[in-house]
Each structure stands twice: as structure tokens, then as C-alpha cells.
Amino acid sequence: xxxxxxQRSLIEEFGIYQENNGFQPAVARVMGLLLVSDxxxxxxxxxxxxxxISKSATSNSLNMLLNxxxxxxxxxxxxxxxxxxxxxxxxxxxxxxxxxxxxxxNSLLKRVLEVRKRENPIYDTKLNDFISFLDYxxxxxxxxxxxxxxSRA
Length: 153
What we know:
It is elongated, with a radius of gyration of 21 Å. The longest helix is centred in the C-terminal third of the chain and has 32 residues. Helix content is 69%, strand content 10%. By secondary structure, the chain is mostly helical. A hairpin with a 2-residue loop joins strand 2 and strand 3.
């Protein structure tokens, strides 16, 4: 598969972004490739060869992305290969999960403030600001989603 220089650069940039969010490098690049590819689905071999990563790294990356719901695969009649693609229909689920994670983090931070015995008013103020922002975001997000959906109608 031939990629333009701009596509390759974007895969790398997306990969770095995802690495900064906890993804392994190969996983991040596989996801980037599936996003920027001109074709909606790619085979295992196309992914491995295009990214110049080992079959093991490709397999591990695809399994991780399948298990986390980021990608899916399809097959075609008469073809034994699996064709992998971004699972774009689940962005709402992923967003809801991220909001749940932030809500859990917020509850942890509130507990941190409760159990801390040391006096550090500057740190406590910054932590309270973050907690307050997370509370605000959680309260506002349903309204924002409703407004967005209404704007698309």
C-alpha cells in the first residue's frame, strides 16, 4: 500500500498523541494507519507491511484494539482474510467511558482532600479548583450533548 508523505506524517503525529495517552507505539500507529488510509479496511499483512512492524507487534496491536473496542473486523465471502477498520460508530461509548473515568478520578481527588493531614493551602486550592472544574464539566456535559444533537437536526 502506498501512502503519501502527508499520510505518513499524520500517522506519526497521531501515534505520538496516542502514546502520550498511554498507548504502546505500535498500537498507536496501527490506529493512525486505519484512520488515514484511503481504504476503509486493511488486512493484517497490509498493516504489518505498511508500518514495517513485526507480525507479532501487529497481532498484539490488533488484539488490543479489538479488545478495547477501537476497531472491528469484517470478512468477505470467498476470502479467508480479516479486514480491520476503525469502529467509528462507538465514539459515544468511548466518550461516555472517558467521562466515567473523569468522574471516578474526581471522587478519588475528593477523598484525597479528606484524608490529607498536611497543610499546603496552595496545593489544596489548585486541587479544589480541579475538582470544581470536573464537577462543572460533569453537570454541563449532558446539556452540551443535547445542544449538539439539536444543532444537527
